[in-house]
Task: inverse folding
């Protein structure tokens, strides 16, 4: 009888601990969606400041007898953060180890191909069970410098809501400053 354990020569996939890994791209695995966490204190502060300007806009619209504005997203929708694509990437480093890292966000399809010689700059994630995240890729085969981008809290909230929150904060500070001076 043949012992199957001794005949298997598969190499284990490891998570690298180095900040920079150089090697050959082996495989881009199937991607999946992960949600960005939205901190409730930051969200409450932005919505409160934006609410001040929102109230003023409602009063102005009522005085001008102009119809309502656009639809607003609910607190529940804003609290549920944006999703971004996570693609596990396997690379054989210069020592022959098979390492797995995560690519967050999107890159052009033609940017990486199996067999490309790459240099990856990595950052550890908060959850130590997860593979390190790729911050920057230098494709040494093509000479491309690639930086994956993901959704953030600020892009999720949107420029209109953030501008409204800034105006509301300025208004609140102005009213507080006037109250303190008188």
Result:
């Amino acid at each position: 009888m043949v012992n199957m354990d001794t005949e298997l020569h598969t190499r284990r996939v490891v998570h690298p601990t180095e900040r920079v890994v150089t090697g050959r791209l082996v495989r881009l695995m199937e991607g999946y969606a992960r949600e960005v966490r939205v901190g409730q204190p930051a969200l409450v502060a932005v919505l409160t400041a934006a609410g001040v300007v929102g109230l003023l806009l409602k009063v102005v619209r009522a005085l001008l007898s102009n119809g309502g504005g656009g639809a607003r997203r609910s607190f529940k929708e804003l609290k549920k953060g944006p999703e971004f694509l996570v693609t596990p990437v396997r690379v054989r480093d210069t020592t022959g180890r098979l390492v797995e890292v995560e690519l967050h966000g999107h890159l052009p399809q033609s940017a990486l191909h199996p067999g490309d010689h790459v240099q990856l700059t990595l950052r550890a994630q908060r959850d130590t069970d997860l593979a390190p995240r790729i911050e920057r890729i230098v494709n040494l085969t093509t000479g491309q410098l690639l930086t994956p981008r993901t959704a953030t809290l600020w892009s999720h909230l949107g420029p209109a809501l953030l501008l409204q929150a800034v105006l509301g904060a300025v208004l609140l500070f102005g009213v507080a400053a006037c109250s303190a001076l008188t």
Summary: The mean pLDDT is 81. Strands lie at 13-14, 20-28, 32-35, 83-93, 98-104, 117-123, 133-139, 144-146. The chain has five helices and eight strands.
